[in-house]
Amino acid sequence: MERQHSSRSLCSNLFFLSLLISSNLLTFYLFSSSSSSATSESTTSCPPYSITAANNEPPPTATGATTDLAPEFLEFASPHPFPFGKNPNSGEDHLYSPAGHPCTLFPDHLNRFMSYTVNGSCPDDELIAQRLLLKGCEPLPRRRCRAAAPNDYVEPYPLPVSLWSTPSDHSLVWTAYACKNYSCLINRKYQKSFDDCKDCFDLAGREKARWTSSESRGLDFSIDEVLATSKPGSIRIGLDIGGGVGSFAVRMRERNVTIVTTSMNLNGPFNNFIASRGVVPMYLSISQRLPFFDNTLDIVHSMHILSNWIPTKVLHFLLFDVYRVLRPGGLFWLDHFFCVGEQLEEEYRPVIESVGFKKAKWVVGRKLDRGPERKEMYLSALLEKPLKNSW
């Protein structure tokens, strides 16, 4: 009787054990299936950014179609394994070369830019490169070819002569521009055609007097006036956004301040001209994040380029980027910001004030050269980043 009871107990235990094992196996199977399904669904709905899709089809273009991308672009943008395995700094075992996401949205321009003979000469295609930049293809992909240069290149003048001298016509390649020499650029201020910074290349004209005195109903701040708002020697390095031919950087250099100037080549060799003067150009559009670390610059200046032609939300992002790169106590000189009618009070003042700058100067004036009926306005402001966070 006792043996029979023991046998029944053993059978019962074995039954429950087998049931428990079966249940666990079923749970494991269901969990594995759901995890696999979720992973697959996640990968399908939110794939990581790559040059080619999972099925090796090219990415969609701006119109939704697909296209083949130049092999050299795919070669550049594909991940490349590190020679010694995982890199301790990045934590990755591959190097990913950056190219602006919108590059692939304009495949015709991109393929023209990335079609060349490796180890040979680059095509003379400055206009294509600039169009890609202005379409948001920043940074441009690197290329494995030699950039075009003039065959009879003439070196720039030595410092300090170079600061206010027009360089030789043989210092650059002119094919991208309507003018083919500096005399044409200097004289285009007398022409009726529209050009960006039309009289900038005339260093003996209005350019020579910029930022040297305060005038024009208080809208024109002088450099010495601005520097006087800070401790002597505390303004040492900075940035000029959209700085034309670099005259602001030259004036600041004369006062032992180093300024980097961003500029595009809009129908003129602005970057070449800036460099020939002995100051530093940066080929950069206003849409790209400023390539400086947080809290590092003493001053950021911009004249005319920051105005109402920029979408307001883009401007808001840009102003916060300026705030980011300025050190505490650094200065933002917003020079002749242009707007019309009630835009300043209704739209731009709230946007500028929301960033958190302190106002050292704030001058508003009418722009009357094209007639008062246009209701055009200028704002010149000197704004300071607080020493402590404003929140």
TrEMBL record:
Coiled coil: none
Keyword Membrane attached: yes
Signal peptide interval: none
Domain of life of the source: Eukaryota
Start and end residues of each stretch annotated as Disordered: 36-65
Its membrane topology: Single-pass membrane protein; Single-pass type II membrane protein
Localization per record: Endomembrane system; Membrane
Segments of skewed composition (Low complexity): 36-45
One GO CC term, this protein: membrane
Keyword Transferase assigned: yes
Gene Ontology molecular functions: methyltransferase activity
Annotated protein name in UniProt: S-adenosyl-L-methionine-dependent methyltransferase
Species assigned in the record: Stephania cephalantha
